[in-house]
Amino acid sequence: MAEPKVLLSGLGIPESPRWHDDRLWFCNWIDRQVMAVDMDGKAEVMVVRDPGSHSMGYSIDWLPDGRLLTTGDKVRRHERDGSVVTLADQPANEIVVDGRGNIYINGADFDFAGGAAPTPGYIKLITPGGHMRQVAGDIAFPNGMVITPDNRTLIISESFARQLTAFDIDPDGGLSNRRVFAGDVAPDGITMDAGGAVWVQTGFSVARIAEGGQVRQRVDIPEGRAPFALMLGGPDRRTLFILTAEWRVADGHVVNLDRLANGPRTGEILTLPVEVPGAGRP
């Protein structure tokens, strides 16, 4: 089996990767940037966030018409003329958009980086008409989300429950029929392939897991590094991008996050060829 190779280094915490317009776009947490990198490792800063904005806990996706969305302290839409419109005065972590333009955001209202006791999280829907409502609650630290290409299922990482949870997407965009997609994982940012399996974190490794929890493939990550997010992309969608940074288990997350924020930039993007291509639109 091939070993992961370093595509890009010197990052803060690389997060929320998306394959878009023949490049991997991602959020460079700590440095408050949205970046894009090509398959040769040539990187470009696409969006510079306000110095007072969230340094961690923001993500990106696109509307079907190609306009960029960003989260953080608010949900914003980036217009083609360079202007920025606030879609919702709602703090949010992850974001995913279905093929009909329904926007799903998630979050949990406690200070994770500061070590506060966790509170239940949520998923909220912003419709194409601009209306926002909560469509799921009691999420144990909501994290990465994917939507199946048929727009019928949303899968979310419940990091503190160590499981992937699936919902049916109703005709009005609501979520129903909550169920476990796979358990005994350590999920963060996830990606789905054309076979319906999900690449997900399993501690200091990543795995391709089918619905029900069957592990189809597992890949170890270099020692001392944590995989924060995953994305399938590349020219044929058969490259797995693994976004990592240094992580010392014994230190706990508060110390680790402080070191990542104030110490050397240890974030890296790794690449690994895989057999089954990514699902959905590029």
Describe it:
With 282 residues, the protein is mainly β. 4% of the residues lie in helices and 49% in strands. It has one domain: Neuraminidase (6 Propeller), CATH 2.120.10.30. The chain has one helix spanning 252-262; strands at 5-11, 13-20, 23-29, 33-37, 43-48, 60-62, 68-70, 75-78, 84-88, 95-97, 103-107, 121-126, 132-139, 142-147, 153-158, 163-169, 175-183, 191-192, 198-201, 205-209, 215-220, 225-233, 239-246, 267-273. Strand 4 and strand 5 form a beta hairpin.
Please give a handful of descriptors for the protein shown.
single chain, 282 residues, mainly beta, Neuraminidase, four-stranded antiparallel sheet, 1 helix, 24 strands
Give me the secondary-structure category: mainly beta
Distance between the termini: 26 Å
Annotation field: number of helices: 1
Mean pLDDT: 94
Number of strands: 24
Short description:
This protein has 282 residues and is mainly β. Helices cover 4% and strands 49% of the residues. The chain has one helix at residues 252-262, and strands spanning 5-11, 13-20, 23-29, 33-37, 43-48, 60-62, 68-70, 75-78, 84-88, 95-97, 103-107, 121-126, 132-139, 142-147, 153-158, 163-169, 175-183, 191-192, 198-201, 205-209, 215-220, 225-233, 239-246, 267-273.
List the helices and strands and how they pair.
Layout (H helix, E strand, L loop, with lengths): L4 E7 L1 E8 L2 E7 L3 E5 L5 E6 L11 E3 L5 E3 L4 E4 L5 E5 L6 E3 L5 E5 L13 E6 L5 E8 L2 E6 L5 E6 L4 E7 L5 E9 L7 E2 L5 E4 L3 E5 L5 E6 L4 E9 L5 E8 L5 H11 L4 E7 L9
Antiparallel strand pairs: 1-24, 2-3, 3-4, 4-5, 6-7, 7-8, 8-9, 10-11, 11-12, 12-13, 14-15, 15-16, 16-17, 18-19, 19-20, 20-21, 22-23, 23-24
